[in-house]
Amino acid sequence: MGRRCCQRSRRYVSVSHYRNPVNVVEGLVNRQEFFIELADVLLDAHQKCSLEKMHLYRIIISFVSLFTREITKNVFIARKFLYIIGLRLKGYMDESEKKKKVRQQPKQIFSELIACNNHRLIVLTSFGIITSIIIDCPEACIWMPLDESQVPMYLVGSPLDILPIDPLLFPTFLNEKESMEFTKTLKKLLASKLKQIHTRSCKIDNRWALNCSRETDFHLIVRACVDVVSLLDTADLTKPRAIFDLYSKVFGFTKGNNEFFDGEIVIRVKAMLQWAITNEREGSFRALLVSKILQIYVRHFRSLNFDSRNFVQIIVDFLNRESPAPEKASFRKEYSNLILLLIELQRASLFSHDEYIMLLIKYDELKDGEPIIPKLQRLLEPLKEVESTNLSDENIGRTSNENQQLIRNFLTPATTIIQGNLADHEFCRLKDDIEDEIVFMEKPEGMGIHERLIIQLPIEQIEANRGAVNQRAIYLYGITNEREEVSKNLRNFSTNIINKWLEFCYIFHRKRKTVKTRKNMVGLDECFKDFKKLTYYDRLCVTGYCMDGYLQILKDFTSKSTSSFSLPIIEIFDMLLSMAEAAQCIGWTITFFLECFPLILSCEKILDSVRTDLPPGTFSSQQCFAIVGFLAEHYKYFLLSKEAIKICNALFRVIEPAIRAEDYPTTGWSKAVAAFLIQARFDLRIRGKGFFAFRARDCQKILPTHGTPIEYIQDFDDELFVSEDDLLNYQKRIYTFHDFKVFVQRLNSVEAEHSFVVNAFAMAKEFANDFSKLTELANFCGNVSAVKSLESHWLNVIEALCTPHGSKRIRIPGFDKIDNSMDFFQHYTYSTFITLLATRFCFSVHSLFVRFNNDFFKAPRKLF
């Protein structure tokens, strides 16, 4: 009993950690795990409540309503919440009948509950969530003929079956006098959705029994698909031989041979492919995981055939039936996932571009005599004429209301409640995510599935693939000079990017200490915008050329052949990694890192020997910081890659002087790399192949401590910081090493260190929402904190900022300079700055969460 209570308490606390809806919406936490945990908490609260004790359930259902929009994006999660909420409404009916000992109409019972202050919020919130699921995710309501002994209860039948009241009655509980028209519209919309659900449920019922020659086979197909998806969703890949165990279970080899049905292996393969590209799951690792599982199957049976069907045939059939469609809302994201999947299948030698083309010709999907690009250009010509006509009409009809319309376009499309002009007190306007203008994606409408894929699918530019590259060019452009022109243009575009990079490099002179760099970054931004308009194939080509150019810049630096030489700044490397990510070449980029590390170490050794005042370790730690940022974005992919331990050891060798050498300067970038290595070593300790060249406690030496409360005296230096001109207009990322050491010596007391932290927030307040300036400020603060260990001061000030009604801010000198309790416009600025400080490990994020947990979540925990 005590253990169950402890587990329940931990569950409530874990949910309370993520009470901020923004964290879930923006993907700062794992959405699927969060919503499953939240649904279990809601079910637990339902099972313990009665008509007299609804306080806890009311809190949780109100919290659930904040995520209605996110819940409706996932069929299984929406179905689970719909089932649990239906149980609560049914519980109301049962408890009412038991109490009054008479059967009443559902509408009468719920009208009485809505009139009660204790139950009004629960009932109306439940009605609202159910209505949203029916309208936005009708798939979650469709009837499923599954056996309750094999699957969870919410997957059996339809969740609507458990509702004690017809959803069409929900609009009648609104105030009809004030919203008559809205009630009618909502009722009409609900009726159409319920009719659609009923029709689809009937079709599933018929198809379930008549789809196969044997009436019992179809439920086995669905069970196999559910089995594959559930296994992939819950796979724990940190255990030894985990991927081999997953392989056995995914293909059903753990069950008896007599339980297999015809074509089951192909069904399971297609379910894996769909799991890898669907927008209802997250993570680039899915493509790599699926390719590894399929690769194990091929090695196991020594054949590329699955149930006597060639793998490329399965891919073509999958594309014909399950390929992302342009009219689908998540088309761009799912197509990007499809490209990544096919790249990984090519890298695993499972998918052959040449075999794919031959199969299309065999199926008459591709014709030899008609090149694809000229055909599509003819289809695009009428569209261009229509667009130019519409554009001219818009220019003629433009009015003085242009600014209001522009602001309206910046709003999220789903926010249909806000209409008309925005209020004058609106603090922050967030733009929609701008989709890449990739050519030949949605348009023209007559473009086929395979035509689009031949245009977009990347092919690694190596000698072994020369035939496939030439074959692709012939089918796209024919036997014309245009093939060579396209290749030439891509090389010229790549050369222009590399030349731009050279303009933004650090420039070192052998006989002078001066380090110069250009400041205008507009050219790089424009190049990247043009890059995002290319096809995925062209992106891969340009990225490959630019990677070679980047390596050449580093090699030229180490050659010492000139009196002045250049090194790329961190923004250049970050741009290159963004290009690689946009091209979906994640695996090739990880291999590229292994080529970079020896050159980075060589460059750092030369910098130590050159007569320059650049702080030791600055260049190498910046490069590794960008690498770690990329690997953290694709962390599970990194853990699955065979180069993982090699990269960890190489990263450690770069930051090793900061850890082992005495008086070697530590930077905020080095601390971030050390923290990444600790986590990666822990996750790779069992399944990783190879030996680590470091121990976790080695990296722990330079990480921030947990911090301690500090009692300050009333002594605050308002001018203890650097000027904005010195911080932003200087020729390097930070001070020269000499000036930096002079400044650090000024932080010789607790009050001076505290003054530095407060003044840093004051400067962040001046920068407002200028992200580039905030980044420069965070870089400087990270390097100072790495030398002076200011984590206690950062934690105290941040905690005071986040407790506007607490007594802690009263005891902090100079806090009035940054107080923002009533200025909500500054919340975004401070939140951004604190996040940037956390990425430089100026303080322990874990310690900050512990303090927040103790300060903010005391009351909710007492309620639980």
Automatic annotation (TrEMBL):
Cellular compartments per GO CC: nucleus
Pfam families: Med12-LCEWAV
Name this protein carries in UniProt: Mediator complex subunit Med12 LCEWAV-domain domain-containing protein
Location(s), subcellular: Nucleus
Species whose genome carries this gene: Panagrolaimus davidi
UniProt superkingdom: Eukaryota
Record keywords: Activator, Nucleus, Repressor, Transcription, Transcription regulation
Domain Mediator complex subunit Med12 LCEWAV-domain: 96-295, 311-381
Family the entry assigns: Belongs to the Mediator complex subunit 12 family.
InterPro entries listed in its UniProt record: Mediator_Med12_LCEWAV (IPR021990)
